């Protein structure tokens, strides 16, 4: 049994009831795509509709990783929801641009920018205003 040279790490942060931030670290390829898909499916199962994918620490992504991103994009749109890629590493951004994925799936510089885009998505739950109690 060989150890992966660059194992995948996925940190899941629930930003709001319907929004989750997945911070991914490591290669997103045929060896790790199933693990990434498991995290996304778990969040869909728990009612998340908007996915912020922080890919800043992903040095490499192949077609397996792109297929997972596109699959969750399609599933989220049907809810309706959204997927946003955050700060992809230069090599990953190049692949996203060359394949046209970055035209379909919005790319943001930060989680805050992506969350602003989520709030502009039809059907999104608005962020509570500071200092105002929820009704």
UniProtKB/TrEMBL annotation:
Superkingdom of the source species: Bacteria
Pfam families in the cross-refs: STAS (PF01740)
Span list, region Disordered: 113-135
Gene3D superfamilies noted in UniProt: STAS domain
InterPro entries hit by this protein: Anti-sigma_ant, STAS_dom, STAS_dom_sf
STAS domain sequence ranges: 17-118
NCBIfam families: ant_ant_sig
Family the entry assigns: Belongs to the anti-sigma-factor antagonist family.
Protein known as: Anti-sigma factor antagonist
Record organism: Streptomyces chlorus
Lineage: Bacteria, Bacillati, Actinomycetota, Actinomycetes, Kitasatosporales
């Amino acid at each position: 049994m060989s150890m992966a040279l660059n194992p995948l790490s996925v940190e899941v942060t629930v930003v709001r009831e319907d929004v989750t931030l997945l911070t991914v670290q490591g290669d997103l390829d045929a060896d790790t795509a199933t693990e990434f898909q498991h995290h996304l499916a778990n969040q869909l199962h728990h009612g998340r509709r908007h996915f912020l994918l922080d890919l800043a620490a992903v040095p490499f992504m192949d077609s397996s990783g792109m297929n997972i991103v596109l699959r969750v994009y399609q599933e989220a749109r049907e809810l309706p929801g959204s997927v946003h890629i955050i700060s992809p590493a230069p090599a990953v951004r190049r692949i996203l641009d060359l394949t046209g994925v970055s035209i379909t799936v919005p790319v943001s510089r930060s989680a805050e920018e992506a969350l602003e885009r989520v709030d502009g998505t039809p059907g999104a739950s608005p962020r509570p205003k500071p200092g105002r109690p929820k009704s």
